Give the backbone structure.
Amino acid sequence: MNKKISLPLSAPPGTEPEWPGQFDSWLCRLLPVGLPVYMITTKNENGTDNVQLNAWTLLTGRAPAELFLMVLWGGHTLRNALRTGEWVANVAPRSMGDRMFEVVRHNQPETDELAASGLTALPGEAVAASRVAEAVAHFECRLDWHREIAPGVALVAGQVVAASADQAILEGTPEQRVNALDILFYLPSLFNLASARLDGERYASLTPPDAGV
Ligand SMILES: Cc1cc2nc3c(=O)[nH]c(=O)nc-3n(C[C@H](O)[C@H](O)[C@H](O)COP(=O)(O)O)c2cc1C
């Protein structure tokens, strides 16, 4: 049997984060479990599209489905989601490559971040927030409740009121469907307990890597 190592539940004393709050999600820094990357779209007050990359998204299997987001308190996504009560969680495929990071670079308030990032807005089926046409699946949500779970971090629960996906994800063998989804996993900078150092962040996928990312 493999040797089991008990894990510290918070960063060892004396370890310095590179930025405040970096160790708040400590176990994600210790274990390379990977978090699927979503693009969260909301409507700005001036009607333009705001986009956030979000890896702390959880789609639960209950009916009607619930989708949970962990979002930073000061960001535009939380402000818009609470004001409008709506958002879309778009599954960002690995084939989008660098383009998905454009939305982080274009982060001024009231900017049309979809257009500025060279992405295409598709109207939601049930909510005013747009779908990202280049994404491969979309969960349209209405706000259920939100709660501050740590200083500056909110957990937001939404009910999925409409869902859509590319046809290729719904047809073919399981392997073909997984390949069509082409999901990207984010591995935040990993902490090495032996050296007490952080190693750079990584991305992973279920299919072999290509030159796109
Ligand atoms: C791979 C990746 C994952 C991220 N995950 C989250 C997340 O789960 N929650 C969050 O609030 N910010 C997350 N961010 C940071 C936001 O995407 C970034 O700060 C964004 O520009 C803020 O958007 P907003 O002000 O429009 O909400 C992530 C960034 C990257 C690159």
Remarks:
- The chain is about 15% helix and 35% strand.
- The pocket of flavin mononucleotide is lined by residues 37, 50, 52-56, 70-72, 75-77, 104, 107, 186 (CB under 6 Å).
- The radius of gyration is 18 Å.
- The first helix runs from residue 26 to 30.
